[in-house]
Structures are given as C-alpha cells and as structure tokens.
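Human
Can I borrow your eye for a moment on a structure tokenisation matter? Give me a protein, with the fold worked out from its sequence. Write it directly below this note and I will take it from there.

Assistant
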Amino acid sequence: MVDKKEWEMLQEKWLTVGEVYQEPKRGAYKLKHFIQHCIPLLKGRKVVEIGCNAGLFGVHIIKVAESYTGVEPGNRIREKKSAPKTDYFKQAQITVQYVNKPSFNIYNDLIEEYCKRDEDVNTFFACFALYHFRDNEIELLKKHVWSKCDLIIILNREQYRPTKHNSYKFWKSKNVKKFFEGLGYKVEIIWGESKRGKIFSEVICKKEKA
C-alpha cells in the first residue's frame, strides 16, 4: 500500500481543492482487501476504472498494470440542489501529477463521453460505484466497454438502505454475480468485512477469450 508519508503528502495536496473522501481511516480496509485479492490479477493488463474518485486505487493498479485509465465526472453530476463540497476530478488531477506516467490517465468524463473514446482496454474495475450507474449507462458499458473486457472486478458494498439508481439491484453482490453470469462470465465473490462490521465484496468476473 501507499506508505504513511505518501498518504499524508497526497492528502495534504487533495485538501487544497476540497474535503478528502478516500482518507486512510475510511478506505484502508477495502484497499487492503483489494490489494490482496485483485492486484495480482491485474499484472500487464489495460485497466479502466469508472468512478475513480481521486484515483487512489489507480496508484496501486498502475504498479502492475500495463495502463490505467480513470473516469471521474466530478461536479459535472449534480443530482442534489447544492453541489458536492469537493470536485473529485480536481483531486484526481493531483494524483495524475503524482504518478507521472504516460500510461496513467484520468478523464473528466460522463460515461457516455468515455464510451465514445473507444479505448483499448481489457479490464474493467469499479469501486462502490456500480449501483450508482443508470440503466442507460449500463447499456452503454455493455456495448462499448464490457464487450472488450475478459476481466471485470466490482468492489461492492452490501447496503442496508439500497441505492436505487438502476433496475438491477446492484447493492447486493449476488445480483452483480447474476448479471455478469448472464453476460457469459464465470463469477467468484470474495467477501470482506470492515472494522465496523460492514460487509463488502470483490465480484471477480472472468471470461475465456474466444
């Protein structure tokens, strides 16, 4: 993992543009679990993460992947009357400068905009984000992104109060599993638990190349 000094340095820079969402005490448990179970699967792969926030997971992914693309709409999405306190894309720009590799990029795109880029990727990742996607966005990802991916990893939170942005009930990992099995993937769920007892999972979907 990013060591303590790196954390503090990144956090200090992120704070210059807003509050920090992925601070250590909040995200360490899921990040450690992800590094243990998923990072080895990403060696040499071309990864896209939708809803990457400040790009913290990307900092780890690019250590083993061939390339990493993050997609963070930031304050371009305003569903509430007041805008969020932080535009996370501004923090993501700081992360891009920190990593400083041509193979590490983060776009300020909505999903429909990213799909038009037609990037060369073979791996999709989303962290606590899939249940936020709209039905039309899921259809776009199916057609333009997932069709190119033989590996999909969804870090998912089991929600007591469900997020109802789409019709697939993705706040339950079993529903994520069923959905991707329907797309022809073999799916494994690896469960984890935070210190506060909140259950989450990595849903790992693999498809044999044709």
Notes: The two ends are 35 Å apart (CA to CA). The CA atoms of residues 142 and 183 lie 9 Å apart. The chain has one domain: 4-206. The mean pLDDT is 90.
